[in-house]
């Protein structure tokens, strides 16, 4: 028990470092991970299944009874993040179709699970974060292909139904399965819940190794454009984060809730974006998603650390 807790803390505390390290290893030795290249979808499905297992029905009910903050966060994510992603794609990569599509795809997938982790570290409202992520997961099978078809269709032909069904298989069904298992075997699931964060992170590591090793050739062939891609995805992460937080505070949202909205607005499931890009648009379209994955985890960790160490939440500022 203590060993697993120590391992979990080490992984969570240094998550961005692990992400960068594993990305470098997968890029340098792609052939070493041939055996797991087909496990990307399975790894993502495992993360969403574990998310379903770990949802607290009591805390979710509290948020559902007062849903305005959850709806605000989801609205901000699907307007600010999507708008910024489209603007960056058209501004920086209008002549590079696959990269532009990858940028838009990275901003039109559901919230990343790391947003929940960083919300917890930053002292934000975790129940709100999980509720927003759940809402994201339920609406993304429709919104993601629709938004891609409308805004990336001028770059690459977008087929709605294959993309829709892929998201259903990878995201929607595993989440429902996790919720069903928790409902049927609640007592047994309670013994597993403490381990779901570290299991999710290990599944994420499999996804990273799979995605990077698959995209290695595309990355090596486009090294010249990588600096611009990293500048673009840094803006893609930072602008929605800051906008979501300050708009929420301007609207009188409590600090804890605003912090949850910050991470929800700025962190998308770029591992899912990379997987969808590889399967539907080619390895080059996965490059922005891979870069976004590195940057949103790194910037997210820095922001969480900043809130954790530099700011104290005043009790009177916390809203129910």
Distance between the termini: 34 Å
Radius of gyration: 18 Å
Structural category: mainly alpha
Instruction: Quote the average pLDDT.
Output: 82
Helix content: over 70%
Strand count, sense and barrel status of the largest sheet are: none
What is the overall number of helices? 15
Fraction in beta strands: under 5%
Shape estimate: globular
Number of strands: 0
Helix and strand sequence: HHHHHHHHHHHHHHH
Give start-end ranges of low-pLDDT stretches.
313-320
Q: Can you describe this structure in just a few lines?
A:
The chain is mainly α and 320 residues long. 79% of the residues lie in helices and 0% in strands.
Protein architecture, described:
The chain is mostly helical and 320 residues long. It has 15 helices and no strands. The protein has helices at 2-13, 15-28, 40-54, 57-65, 68-93, 97-106, 114-121, 126-151, 160-184, 186-192, 196-221, 226-250, 255-266, 270-280, 283-310. Helix 3 packs antiparallel against helix 11 (196-221), helix 8 runs parallel beside helix 13 and helix 12 runs antiparallel to helix 13. The longest helix has 28 residues, at 283-310. The model is unreliable at 313-320 (pLDDT under 50).
Feature tags:
320 residues; mainly alpha; globular; disordered C terminus
Describe the secondary structure blueprint for this structure.
Elements: H1 2-13, H2 15-28, H3 40-54, H4 57-65, H5 68-93, H6 97-106, H7 114-121, H8 126-151, H9 160-184, H10 186-192, H11 196-221, H12 226-250, H13 255-266, H14 270-280, H15 283-310
Helix pairs in contact: 2-11, 2-15, 3-9, 3-11, 4-8, 5-6, 5-8, 5-12, 5-13, 6-14, 6-15, 7-8, 7-13, 7-15, 8-9, 8-13, 9-10, 11-14, 11-15, 12-13, 12-15, 14-15
């Amino acid at each position: 028990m203590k060993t697993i807790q120590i391992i979990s803390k080490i992984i969570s505390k240094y998550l961005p470092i692990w992400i960068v390290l594993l990305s470098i290893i997968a890029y340098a030795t792609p052939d070493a991970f041939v055996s797991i290249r087909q496990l990307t979808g399975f790894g993502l499905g495992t993360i969403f299944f574990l998310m379903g297992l770990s949802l607290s029905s009591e805390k979710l009910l509290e948020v559902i009874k007062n849903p305005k903050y959850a709806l605000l966060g989801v609205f901000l994510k699907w307007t600010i993040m999507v708008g910024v992603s489209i603007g960056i794609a058209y501004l920086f990569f209008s002549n590079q179709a696959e990269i532009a599509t990858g940028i838009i795809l990275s901003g039109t997938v559901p919230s990343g699970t790391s947003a929940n982790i960083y919300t917890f570290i930053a002292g934000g409202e975790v129940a709100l974060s999980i509720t927003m992520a759940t809402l994201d997961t339920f609406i993304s099978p429709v919104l993601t292909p629709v938004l891609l078809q409308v805004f990336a269709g001028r770059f690459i032909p977008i087929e709605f139904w294959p993309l829709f069904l892929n998201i259903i298989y990878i995201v929607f069904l595993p989440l429902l399965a996790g919720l069903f298992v928790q409902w049927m075997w609640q007592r047994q699931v309670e013994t597993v819940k403490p381990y779901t964060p570290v299991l999710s992170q290990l599944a994420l590591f499999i996804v990273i190794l799979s995605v990077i090793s698959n995209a290695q050739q595309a990355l090596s062939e486009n090294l010249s454009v990588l600096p611009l891609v990293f500048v673009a995805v840094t803006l893609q992460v930072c602008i929605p984060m800051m906008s979501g937080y300050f708009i929420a505070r301007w609207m009188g949202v409590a600090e804890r809730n605003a912090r949850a909205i910050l991470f929800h607005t700025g962190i998308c499931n770029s591992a899912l974006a990379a997987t969808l890009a590889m399967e539907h648009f080619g390895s080059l379209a996965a490059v922005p998603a891979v870069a976004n994955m590195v940057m949103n985890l790194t910037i997210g960790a820095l922001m969480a650390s900043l809130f954790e160490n530099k700011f104290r939440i005043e009790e009177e500022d916390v809203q129910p």
